[in-house]
Design brief:
Blueprint: H1 2-43, H2 49-66, H3 68-81, H4 85-111, E1 121-124, H5 127-134, E2 139-143, H6 148-156, E3 165-169, H7 178-197, E4 202-206, E5 213-214, H8 215-222, E6 226-230, E7 243-247, E8 250-255, H9 258-266, E9 270-277, E10 283-287, H10 301-319, E11 332-335, E12 340-343, E13 373-374
Parallel strand pairs: 1-10, 2-6, 2-9, 3-4, 3-6, 5-13
Antiparallel strand pairs: 7-8, 9-10, 11-12
């Protein structure tokens, strides 16, 4: 009887803990939504950008101190980068501030304060891309979830990418609690900002909830255009083909394989563009080499293409973590000496003796049904 009663008390305590956690997370989402809509959006109407930047920083401090996600980001940065609390706190404040800064930038683009000429762009390894586009070659443009105000300049700038662009975007967030309200506000604004930034030569193609590659995107590639998409979007293997591998601070994550699939069926190369904001406010666009399209009859090769892109992305996450909008994870550690992600030392090990054991990505594997085409 005593055992049953203690078990019952344990379940009640667990249920109460889960309810409390849900309430805390919902209130944090309400706070984030209020900061975006009631603080950052009005600040964007002030012509002086420095005022909005200061407001975004204050919102970042507030989110870091008063929300569970903010405090968790401090813990993750300490674990993933093996830094002292003060350094982790500074990274967390910058990481949280970046989410509000991008919302500010998008609103300023919609209002017409910021345009393509508002930011100075620098390029690294862009010449092969320029030559390929000058010859009329089509291209799959791979992007990652770094701050989306910087992604605007990387993905749809007219001078950098003069060909017509189809930008593949996910569907709208499902209705639900405060987290979906906040996501819906951000989803609507980023699409409006994209179209305001480049009114002509850009089409947003909304993806369904399956893994099918839009046939319109394939036709666009075969007729000499650019298709842009986010490569580091996590994906459920139950929905279709997925690449499962370590990524940044996570031991295992599943990713969609759309970039490799588009290159294969569209018969064109892939290039990755990673933006980095420089201290003087300009943006450095870092271009990868052109990755050749997999053979049309080699469906598994598309996994290797996506795997290669994710290797480059996770390295940039390690070098520039505060600009990556997703949590970086804390199951693995960034090794500053090798500039690579690695397994954490085993519990009870002697730090500095064996160092950090380097790990390579897991062998790519496809799970689920084959990729299809849809109109």
């Amino acid at each position: 009887m005593d055992k049953d009663s203690s078990t019952s008390r344990g379940w009640r305590a667990l249920s109460a803990y889960r309810k409390l956690t849900t309430v805390i997370e919902e209130r944090a989402e309400i706070l984030r939504l209020a900061l975006l809509v009631c603080f950052i959006r009005p600040a964007a109407h002030v012509p002086w950008r420095a005022f909005g930047e200061a407001c975004a920083f204050l919102c970042g401090v507030t989110a870091t101190v008063f929300t569970w996600l903010g405090r968790e980001s401090v813990r993750e940065f300490r674990a993933a980068f093996n830094v002292r609390f003060a350094r982790a706190l500074a990274l967390a404040v910058r990481w949280n501030s970046a989410r509000y800064r991008e919302f500010l930038s998008q609103q300023r683009i919609i209002l017409g304060f910021d345009t393509q000429r508002s930011v100075v762009l620098h390029h690294a390894n862009y010449e092969p891309v320029r030559e390929h586009l000058a010859q009329g070659g089509s291209l799959v443009l791979a992007l990652a979830h770094f701050c989306r105000d910087d992604i605007l300049h990387a993905s749809i700038n007219n001078e950098t990418l003069p060909l017509p662009i189809k930008f593949l975007v996910g569907g709208p967030p499902r209705a639900g609690g405060p987290d979906s309200w906040r996501a819906a506000a951000q989803y609507s604004q980023i699409q409006r900002a994209l179209l305001a930034y480049r009114p002509e030569g850009l089409e947003l193609v909304q993806l369904g909830r399956n893994v099918a590659v839009p046939a319109s995107a394939v036709r666009h590639l075969r007729t000499g255009g650019i298709v842009a998409l986010m490569v580091d979007t996590t994906w459920s293997p139950q929905k279709g083909p997925a690449l499962i591998r370590p990524f940044a601070g996570f031991q295992s994550q599943a990713f969609a394989v759309g970039a490799g699939a588009l290159a294969r069926v569209g018969r064109c190369p892939v290039v990755l563009c990673l933006p980095r904001r420089l201290p003087n406010g300009s943006i450095l666009l870092q271009w990868s080499e052109l990755i050749a399209a997999p053979a049309a009859d080699d469906a598994r090769a598309q996994l290797a293409v996506t795997d290669r892109l994710l290797d480059l992305i996770e390295a940039e996450v390690g070098r520039n973590p505060s600009e990556y909008i997703f949590p970086c994870g804390a199951e693995r550690r960034w090794d500053f000496a090798t500039q690579a992600w690695a397994n954490r030392p085993p519990a009870g090990g002697v730090p500095g003796a064996a160092g950090i054991a380097e790990t390579s990505s897991a062998q790519p594997r496809s799970i689920g049904r084959p990729l299809g085409l849809r109109e």
